């Protein structure tokens, strides 16, 4: 790739000197030089030649001096690296030029070796700066796309709170990056039945969000074909395994079957965190039965659905591991944490649960975190 260098000096001898010093590189088309006699002409050339990488300019010139040209270059193109030429010992002008954005300087009479080293070093800096600008533009573009993906992901989540017959659902989801893998949905199978689904995709960030997106689309497609809640898990597992074909891509999930006029619910814990059941402000013994995560293996072993008959006022808590992982002491269990927390419902209504964890328990958002509370009103 040819480096384009603009030389600005009112002494014609410099042009001949430059062409002699860089004769081989000019012939090999590695360097291409353009010459101007003053800053005014140089500025016109720069405005019409965006490909110029470097400017080698004298300070003392007619019509527009080098210091003024440096100011104009800085306003015109921040990538161009100017190098000034000044009389030996003229430190006042050199200092002023460096303050105005000069990358380096040469002194007269110009030393051939010093010139070659300075030009090479300056062009390397230009290449580095161009790459940095390119990387930043790409980063900004990715950030913009991730922000769009974030908005789309949020729009895919059902609004909270959500009611279904005597059941009400409150919750808060906090992603660790712009996109993530925690999700939930309430799929109404018919007028009387619904399937509450809570999930946590493996991995972090974009990879996790892709799994979440595939799961949601698969669930919605299956909902148009399947009416029995027990028939969701096996085809969903097959779809996930077929789509990703790796043990590193799976999701832990909870499936909860609800009926409008029935206090009895049935749930399947597919490799997910324990479901916590609170009655009259006391947590019930933990139920460990469940099954494998979704998409981990091509076929599932026998899944065991757990049946619970709720009393009016009972609450079920569903959460993801981002809550425990973000605590300073990861060995802490979720049940004692909730027991220590008053007014959970109010915190979830105000979307303030994770702010409370951060303030009171030094919790950090290192992974997607979800807390949902299902309340049976009776």
Question: Can you characterise this structure?
Answer:
There is one protein chain. The protein is an alpha+beta fold. It has helices at 12-21, 23-27, 39-48, 66-76, 91-99, 112-156, 205-223, 233-244, 322-325, 334-339, 344-349, 353-361, and strands spanning 3-8, 31-36, 54-58, 81-87, 104-108, 162-164, 167-174, 182-188, 193-201, 251-259, 262-270, 276-279, 282-283, 306-309, 315-319, 369-376. It has 2 domains: 3-136, 3-Layer(aba) Sandwich (Rossmann fold), CATH 3.40.50; 157-376, Phosphatase 2c, domain 1. It is built from 12 helices and 16 strands. The strands form 3 sheets. It has a 6-stranded antiparallel beta sheet with strand order 6-7-16-15-12-13. It has a 5-stranded parallel beta sheet with strand order 2-1-3-4-5, with helices on both faces. Helix 3 runs parallel beside helix 4. It is elongated, with a radius of gyration of 33 Å. The termini are far apart. 33% of the residues are buried.
Helices and strands in order, then pairings?
Blueprint: E1 3-8, H1 12-21, H2 23-27, E2 31-36, H3 39-48, E3 54-58, H4 66-76, E4 81-87, H5 91-99, E5 104-108, H6 112-156, E6 162-164, E7 167-174, E8 182-188, E9 193-201, H7 205-223, H8 233-244, E10 251-259, E11 262-270, E12 276-279, E13 282-283, E14 306-309, E15 315-319, H9 322-325, H10 334-339, H11 344-349, H12 353-361, E16 369-376
Parallel strand pairs: 1-2, 1-3, 3-4, 4-5
Antiparallel strand pairs: 6-7, 7-16, 8-9, 9-10, 10-11, 11-14, 12-13, 12-15, 15-16
Helix pairs in contact: 3-4, 7-8
């Amino acid at each position: 790739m040819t480096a384009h260098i603009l030389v600005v000096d009112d002494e014609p001898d410099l042009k001949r000197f430059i062409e002699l010093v860089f004769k081989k590189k000019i012939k090999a088309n590695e360097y291409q030089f353009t010459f101007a006699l003053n800053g005014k002409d140089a500025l016109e050339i720069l405005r019409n030649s965006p490909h110029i990488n470097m400017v080698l300019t004298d300070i003392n010139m007619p019509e527009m001096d080098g210091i003024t040209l440096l100011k104009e270059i800085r306003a015109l193109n921040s990538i161009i690296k100017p190098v000034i030429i000044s009389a030996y010992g003229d430190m006042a002008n050199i200092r002023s030029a460096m303050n105005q954005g000069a990358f380096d300087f040469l002194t007269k009479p110009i030393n051939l070796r010093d010139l070659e080293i300075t030009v090479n070093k300056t062009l390397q800096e230009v290449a580095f700066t161009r790459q940095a600008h390119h990387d930043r533009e790409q980063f900004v573009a990715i950030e913009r796309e991730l922000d769009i993906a974030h908005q789309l992901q949020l729009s895919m989540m059902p609004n909270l709170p959500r009611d279904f017959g005597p059941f009400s659902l409150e919750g808060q989801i906090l992603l660790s990056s712009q996109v993530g893998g925690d999700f939930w949905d309430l799929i109404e199978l018919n007028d009387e039945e619904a399937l509450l689904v809570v999930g946590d995709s493996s991995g972090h960030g974009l990879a996790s969000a892709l799994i979440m997106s595939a799961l949601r689309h698969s669930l919605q497609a299956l909902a148009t074909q399947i009416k029995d809640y027990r028939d969701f898990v096996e085809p969903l597992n097959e779809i996930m395994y077929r789509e990703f074909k790796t043990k590193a891509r799976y999701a832990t999930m909870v499936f909860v079957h609800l009926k409008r006029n029935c206090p009895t619910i049935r749930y399947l814990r597919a490799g997910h965190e324990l479901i916590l059941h609170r009655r009259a402000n006391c947590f019930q013994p933990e139920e460990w039965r469940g099954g494998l995560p979704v998409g981990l293996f091509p076929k599932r072993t026998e899944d065991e659905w757990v049946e619970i008959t709720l009393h009016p006022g009972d609450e079920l808590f569903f959460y993801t591991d981002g809550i425990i992982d973000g605590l300073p002491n990861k060995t802490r269990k979720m049940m004692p944490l909730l027991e220590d927390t008053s007014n959970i419902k109010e915190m979830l209504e105000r979307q303030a649960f994770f702010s409370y964890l951060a303030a009171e328990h030094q919790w950090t958002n290192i992974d997607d975190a979800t807390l949902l509370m299902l309340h049976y009103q009776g």
